[in-house]
Amino acid sequence: MSVTTAHNAKRMYRFDLTKRLVAKLHRDEAVIGGIGHSNFDLFTAGHRPQNFYMLGSMGLAIPIALGVAIAQPQRKVFAIEGDGSLLMQLGCLSTVATQAPKNLVILVMDNGTYQITGGQATPAAGGTDYVAIARGCGIQSAAWAADEADFERLVEHCLAADGPHLIGLKLDEQGPAGQTERDPSQIRDRFMRGMGAKKSKLTT
Amino acid sequence: MQPWHEIVVEQLKANEIRLIPYVPDNVLKPLINAIHADPFFTAFTTAREEEAIGIVCGAVMAGMRGMALMQTSGFATLANVLASLPCAFQIPALMMISERGTLGEFNIGQAAVWRTMRPTLEALAMEHHVITRLDECGFIVDRTIRQAISTQQPAALILSPLLTGGKANPVKAGG
């Protein structure tokens, strides 16, 4: 993968990156959107039944994605997690490295702040490198995206090659493009259908 | 009569509970060993109990049933994720909790955190049952799992020291 360092990675717009990711998903890949703006932009990019939008349980996007990946090893599964959320549950990177699901891809959306609560700096503002942490945990395929084109190339690599993979994305300060409908039982129902794990005649 | 952990393994298999992420505990050791020895199960440790709940919830939504194993103090770390993930989304995440902190506890920290477990379960309105007797173990495990899945609700099974023997101080009081 690329050798871009955290320092040299371009700061990009989360909604644009999310749209670029979704545009490359053609095989009903699952996407778990982490708490807050990570899933707001996923929802706003266009709902798909293979999307799961979290509501609370900060830090669990990667564990939820790992569960999906273990249950369905033939399906690629993406976790979109914010940097503040990942800090809540850093240990999950070790679990991912040890379980080594080939079909799991983690995107870390790193804006250095808690944007949804007013933009306060995270405790990692001193220079924590999430790609280096992932490598240190044992996720060898971990890289910062240099820019948008590099991100697209990395996503294509993750779709084609066995993982687990992690892509670090440095974000600019722009806010989310919309807001997720907060209806958890509906979200769960749609997602289960999208995963082929539920069949029901209650369709309209 | 079979030991409790064999009964639990039988009921997990009968109900297709295959995924077992856990944070280990001494009392759970025979169950953990039996699960690891049986290729029916996928079992591994997680760094935190919250992580295990996330993994089970993801797997359940993708068609693979699971149960997280932990001890009482681990359950005490879970109120937020239980409220906002399996309770809010109606996901039948199952938990098995080995009960520390009562009936001979020697660690005051465990005894203190034990007092938070039932109030938390009750405040979350989560189905939970305490297993105290071998002859009731299979029935309670089986029916709790079935109800959780049928009603799309999380549930907790608590393994009492009355069932497992618990973990007692080898030194007698005053000894």
TrEMBL record, chain A:
Residues 48-167 form the Thiamine pyrophosphate enzyme TPP-binding domain. PROSITE patterns: TPP_ENZYMES. Pfam families: TPP_enzyme_C. It comes from the Bacteria. The chain crosses the membrane at residues 52-71. Residues 180-192 have a biased composition (Basic and acidic residues). Keywords: Decarboxylase, Lyase, Membrane, Thiamine pyrophosphate, Transmembrane, Transmembrane helix. CDD domains: TPP_ComE. Residues 170-204 are annotated as: Disordered. This is Thiamine pyrophosphate-dependent enzyme. It comes from Siccirubricoccus soli. The lineage of its organism: Bacteria, Pseudomonadati, Pseudomonadota, Alphaproteobacteria, Acetobacterales.
Automatic annotation (TrEMBL), chain B:
Transmembrane segments: none annotated. Keywords: Decarboxylase, Lyase. Gene3D superfamilies: 3.40.50.970. This is Decarboxylase. The keyword Lyase applies. The keyword Lyase applies. It comes from Siccirubricoccus soli. InterPro entries: THDP-binding, TPP_dependent_decarboxylase.
